[in-house]
Amino acid sequence: MFEAVEELLVEHAALEERLADPSVHADQANARKLAKRYAELTPITATYRDWRQAGEDIEAAREFAAEDPDFIAEIKAAEARQAELTEDLRLLLVPRDPSDEKDVILEIKAGEGGEESALFAGDLLRMYLRFAERTGWKTEIIDSNESDLGGYKDVSVAVKTKGTPEPGLGVWARLKYEGGVHRVQRVPATESQGRIHTSAAGVLVTPEAEEVEVEVHANDLRIDVYRSSGPGGQSVNTTDSAVRITHLPTGIVASCQNEKSQLQNKESAMRILRSRLLAAAQEAAEQEASDARRSQVRTVDRSERIRTYNYPENRISDHRTGFKSYNLDQVLDGELNPVIQSCVDADAAAKLASAQQN
Predict the structure, then answer these.
(1) Which residues contact 214 (CB under 8 A, 6 or more apart)?
(2) pTM value?
(3) Mean pLDDT per 10-residue run, the chain (358 residues)?
């Protein structure tokens, strides 16, 4: 492990020297690439320097302890510190998801439960919008299909970071664990006798793809236009502005009806389609990869029930990590970080254990 770190130290120093050269910044794309790699290596080099300093502290304390037993306590403290830094280094050296810094398209779809499920989908949308606001991210609702009572049958929202995020703090790095079935237990607004019902909504999170990442041929697309409709089938406009795009080779479909312009709806649908195609390609690659490269937290099975929101007990439970807390009202108001962090920690621990086995 330490040989690998020494190599990274050399790379980090070389990158620092290159980034100090003004001519490098003439090519902005290359400069961003170098800066990104430099930012990835900085925590590793800083932790390694702290690890070496702890080793020097141990040696110094041992020399003093030969004459003064009081320094034995300092030896133990420095050894504990170095052991902690060793584990930090192991975690930092676990290969990162290359998509971690990407922005995402987050889709929420009502499931079983009719209007109650649609209302819950609206609650989830508000939770993610508030979380993005608290985190300093930008959001844009790309497409939505509201229900009669003000919920959402389905809604797609783009979530974007501002600037270059720190390693591990990108939108995909945090929200990729949200994909799956979210279950709610509460008394629905439509329930007249006060009985608790269980319903669910599905969440799909995909990294937003750039055009250069996913090659889409015009001949592979079937584009249908139709009239947009609102709650209860009410016509929103009188022109065929809504767009549905089908990728014929895969059967993947994306649609958009939010904008009045057919061209704008087509562009939004293409954004969704590209992200879905990229996600499908990545999932296919994950299936072929070894167990060491798979996340044991975020599975490919999108139908997996991942979380329960229990209103009577004000409890939220994540079924993958065992996380449980009784501040559901705060979580629904956007305080989602502790729940997500439990997934991040479990994922890192699983990857570390897998790497050690190999």
Answers:
(1) 274, 277, 278, 281
(2) 0.67
(3) 82 93 89 85 91 92 87 90 87 79 91 85 97 95 88 93 80 93 88 83 85 74 80 52 90 87 88 86 61 35 75 95 96 96 87 68
